[in-house]
UniProtKB/TrEMBL annotation, chain A:
Pfam families: MAGE. The gene is Nsmce3. GO terms for cellular component: nucleus. InterPro entries: MAGE, MAGE_WH1, MAGE_WH2, MHD_dom. Residues 1-197 form the MAGE domain. It comes from the Eukaryota. This is NSE3 protein. Coiled coil: none annotated. Gene3D superfamilies: MAGE homology domain, winged helix WH1 motif, MAGE homology domain, winged helix WH2 motif.
Length: 201, 367
């Protein structure tokens, strides 16, 4: 049962959409419901020992899980496809912007910023295609970003924050280091962001 | 009193009639009732007048107030961005305007609009407060964007600075820009690599039927193969050995010519050229190259720098010539025009290497 669950999790993770406990129970565990937590624990152990991955619960109320990488980050080339890499590039840029601007930005502000990088919500992008869909749907579904409606706005406006997957897969400190590297400055240059990043470890 | 006991009429109807005519009813009652009720009635009338309910121009007044409120609300919504600007006082001004309008409000309907405005205004106020509250150190997003573009390898050299426009402004962003960014980005994420089967998916169903099919095919093929080899042997023999035979034959021709006249080396072109067939000429060159390779003949350049060919006597051979002799690799190219030129130049009338097949000569004569 454990190995079936491990395979199930690995395949489910392909789209990076978080895995629900209900799905796990329905498809794999089925009649062994009582042993659920034990099976999950062993699966996690296998994932860690064999694949260097970790099963993390990002929503304790609704029991939703994601897989993250447990291994220390290697310096060399990553065996990712280009499409994935490019999306991660865009995502990192967005997450940096959100953090540096106080952990929450309005959608208009975000698009204004992306405008500077030649990324437009209304225009098909040569690399990303429908960018609006990528940001507002895909990244949100994958739990990299979280979007909330700002009440009583007409036309409705949204704000963006880091999603739970982003919180687990990276950190404010890493992101601040990225920004510092890009701008050739020391991370302590931005005092309040720096202290928040340090506190957040 | 006069209204009671009308059993003929339905009571709700009469009640409705009574309600729709309050002034008259009141007046009626005022006439009939006591003085106490009169004063009460007067007080009520006074209050009604204070509330300004009435006809004609008051309705106009209310309409005006409603439209002013709506205008104010729309202005505020449209200029939300401008109002959020911390240097702007426009929110305060709008609030003062609303205050002023409220003085003229006397009914719930206009008051509702006022409440709506208040909600919107307070939302803006909250946002403004948030922006002030932001404890983050100043972050220049424009500079950040510029740095990102630099990292992605933007080429700014041929640019005249244009401002943000929907169309691609001057500077050239390479196509692998985002890949570069992504390469850097992957260092900051602990992302589980997506799981893909290396060899493709493995279907567990078909094996049983497939085996049966394979066995059948093998049986069939076995027979066919048995028939084939017999033929093949013959063909292959002719193919491989034909070359060897030909090479040997050519060697013999070369040796024969050389025996006849041992001191005159044979011009390479004279030897290989077949004036009747370009194809055969090429074949001859091909076969001669085997001779050279095997050390059975050699090609030298004479005084005129023209290639000459001569066989190597087996006695001479051995260590001296085959190894010590400088072995060079030469590539000879020959196209039809050159072939014709050579034939002309050297006046080659007949092939030294007699062709094996006579039939083709008839074909060639059609040239």
């Amino acid at each position: 049962q454990v190995s079936e669950l491990v395979q199930f999790l690995l395949v489910k993770d392909q789209k990076k959409i978080p895995i629900k406990r209900a799905d796990m129970l329905k498809n794999i565990i089925r009649e062994y419901r009582d042993a659920y937590s034990e099976i999950v624990k062993r699966a996690d152990r296998t994932l860690q020992a064999v694949f260097g991955l970790q099963l993390v619960e990002i929503d304790t109320k609704r029991h939703i899980y994601i897989l993250i990488n447990n291994l220390p980050r290697p310096e060399g080339q990553h065996l990712c496809r280009d499409k994935e890499k490019e999306k991660m590039g865009l995502l990192l840029v967005i997450l940096s912007f959100i953090f540096m601007k106080g952990n929450s930005v309005k959608d208009s502000a975000l698009w204004e910023f992306l405008h500077l990088l030649r990324v437009y919500p209304g225009k098909q992008h040569s690399v990303f295609g429908d960018v609006r869909k990528l940001v507002t749907e895909e990244f949100v579904r994958q739990k990299y970003l979280e979007t909330t409606a700002i009440p009583l706005t007409d036309p409705p406006e949204f704000k963006y924050q880091w999603g739970p997957r982003a919180e687990k897969e990276t950190s404010k400190k890493d992101v601040l280091n990225f920004v510092a590297k890009m701008q050739s400055k020391d991370p302590t240059f931005w005092a309040s962001q720096y202290s928040e990043a340090e506190a957040n470890k | 009193m006069s209204h009671t006991g009308n059993s003929g009429e339905s009571s709700p109807a009469s009640r409705r009639r009574r309600r729709s005519r309050p002034p008259h009813a009141q007046e009626d009652r005022a006439e009939e009732d006591t003085a106490e009720e009169e004063t009460a009635e007067e007080a009520a009338g006074e209050r009604l007048r204070q509330l300004d309910i009435g006809d004609g121009d008051d309705r106009e007044h209310n309409r005006m107030i409603r439209s002013q409120y709506r205008e104010l609300i729309s202005t505020v919504q449209q200029n939300r961005e401008a109002m959020l600007n911390s240097k702007s006082n426009r929110l305060t001004e709008a609030l003062e305007e609303a205050n002023r309008l409220f003085d003229g409000v006397c009914r719930a309907r206009e008051a509702a609009l006022d409440a709506q405005f208040l909600v919107i205004a307070s939302n803006i106020g909250k946002e403004k407060a948030n922006e002030l509250h932001s404890e983050m150190s100043a972050f220049d997003s424009t500079a950040f964007a510029e740095d990102l573009l630099t990292f992605m390898g933007i080429n700014r050299t041929e640019v005249e600075e244009t401002d943000d426009s929907e169309d691609v402004p001057g500077a050239f962003l390479p196509s692998d820009a985002w890949r570069t960014m992504g390469e850097e980005a992957s260092k900051y994420f602990r992302r589980a690599p997506t799981f893909h089967y290396m060899m493709g998916s493995f279907k567990s169903e078909p094996p049983a039927p497939k085996q049966r099919i394979e066995r059948q095919k093998k049986a069939g093929r076995g027979k066919a193969e048995q028939a084939m080899p017999a033929q093949l042997k013959k063909m292959e023999e002719s193919h491989q050995e034909a070359t060897e035979k030909e090479v040997e034959r050519i060697l013999r021709i070369l040796q024969t010519h050389f025996e006849n006249d041992p001191n005159t080396p044979i011009s390479f072109f004279d030897f290989v050229m077949d004036p009747n067939s370009f194809a055969r000429t090429v074949e001859n060159v091909f076969h001669v190259s085997f001779l050279i390779r095997d050390g059975l003949a050699k090609i030298k350049l004479d005084e005129d720098e023209l290639p000459i060919i001569e066989p190597i006597k087996p006695s001479e051979g051995g260590e001296e010539d085959s190894r010590a002799g400088v072995r060079n690799q030469v590539v000879i190219s020959l196209d039809q025009r050159e072939w014709k030129e050579i034939i002309e130049t050297f006046q080659i009338r007949e092939a030294m290497i007699t062709p094996l097949y006579e039939n083709t000569e008839e074909e060639m004569e059609t040239e």
